[in-house]
Specification:
381 residues; alpha+beta; five-stranded antiparallel sheet; FAD; flavoprotein; FAD-bd_PCMH
């Protein structure tokens, strides 16, 4: 979707001015950070003004004793990590998008392996400052938790200009347990064993490469703490998992990375952790072959990679199969994260159904003219 203009404001006040001008002229606006996830989700129906937030950078305020920091939305995640590391702290959002910015991570609700222990972006955001459709800069909206609402909104509610986030101390040591696995059912069984233990992993991830000649599938768990405690818990986990499990000082090469490449079709699946294996089998049956799946199996969240040459009817069948299984097994979802335009036009990005009544009311309250990233959310009808 081509943009009419690209604007690069230097601070929050200039973002506000751009939105005020857009409102007066009836122009649509789409915000972007590093652009690493602009092709995620449904594309906007039109883009009059693309707001590039790359100049809104820096840690604006850091309170090490309170474990909080206020950070400009355009700040790259790698810069945040480097800045906080000097104080022995971290923002536990280990996302898989290279070069991602804080604003983009929040707007898409992106999270990595550490979500198992620390939660998704909405669990780590204390507050946000957002420019709303008519140009006002707000930190609170009556009756709403603006910080949580902004996470995962894909820029449809406002433009995040800064966020106050909760931090965590850097652990003294980390250890990974890596175990080869044969089937999705085995992943489920072993994951339940670790989750049900008293070992308290910081993350549990699985990599099911799929396809003939692919590398072996693996399950991996991360343990953090003092050197003695992290190693002891990792060794106990390796004993619990058995089957050739090993303790490693570095993560497996696939850890924290998405299974899809730049040209792949990407799906995101989520549901009850105990039922995720059934979705993987349903995708395999619909595709006629194992497909690459990777993600936080302890939470029932994973991403799937498909070739961009996949036929529309095959993709539609896979989405339908996954959504049917999830519905029958307690709920969840299967979103088409990314695909060529010709495929997007033929399948449901978010699945059947519309926004909840609460989501519709919020969108209409904050963006009544539907100027902010129009079309990025499901049909509100």
């Amino acid at each position: 979707m081509p943009a009419g203009w690209v604007v690069s404001p230097g601070d929050a006040d200039e973002v506000s001015e751009v939105l005020r001008f857009a409102a007066a002229e009836g122009l649509s606006v789409v915000p972007t950070g590093a652009g690493t996830k602009l092709d995620w989700g449904a594309p906007p129906t039109h883009v009059d003004v693309l707001i590039d937030l790359a100049r809104l950078t820096g840690v604006l305020e850091h309170s090490p004793g309170e474990l909080t920091a206020t950070i400009a939305a355009g700040t790259p995640m790698r810069a945040i990590r480097a800045r906080l590391l000097r104080e022995g702290q971290r923002l536990p959002l280990d996302v898989g998008s290279p070069g991602a910015t804080l604003g983009g991570v929040l707007a898409t609700g992106e999270a990595g392996p550490l979500r198992h222990r620390f939660g998704a972006p909405r669990d780590l955001v204390v507050g946000v400052r957002m420019a709303l459709d008519e140009g006002s800069l707000e930190r609170q909206v009556d009756g709403r938790d603006l910080a949580r609402d902004a996470c995962g909104s894909y820029g449809t509610l406002g433009v995040i200009t800064e966020a106050t986030v909760r931090l965590e101390p850097m652990p003294a040591a980390r250890a990974w347990v890596v175990r080869p696995v044969a089937t999705p059912r085995e992943v489920q069984r072993l994951t339940e064993a670790v989750v049900g233990s008293s070992l308290e992993p910081a993350a549990i991830e699985a990599d099911l490469p799929g396809g003939s000649g692919a590398r072996p599938a693996e399950l991996s768990a991360l343990f953090e703490g003092s050197r003695e405690a992290a190693l002891a818990r990792a060794e106990a986990a390796a004993k619990l998992l058995g089957g050739g499990a090993t303790v490693e000082q570095l993560p497996p090469a696939w850890w924290g990375r998405y299974p899809f490449g730049a040209d792949d079709v990407a799906l995101k699946i989520w549901g009850r952790p105990s039922e995720l294996f059934a979705v993987v089998y349903a995708l395999r049956d619909a595709a006629g072959t194992p497909v690459p799946v990777r993600g936080s199996v302890g939470l029932g969240v994973a991403e799937v990679a498909l070739p961009d040459s996949i036929a529309p009817e095959r993709l539609d069948g896979m989405l339908t199969a996954a959504r049917t299984v999830l519905l029958a097994r307690g709920g969840g979802g299967c979103t088409l994260l990314r695909a060529p335009v010709e495929l997007r036009d033929l399948v449901e990005t978010y699945g059947p159904g519309h926004l909840t009544d609460a989501a519709v009311r919020l969108k209409r309250a904050l963006d009544p003219e539907d100027r902010l990233a129009p079309g990025r959310l499901p049909d509100p009808a």
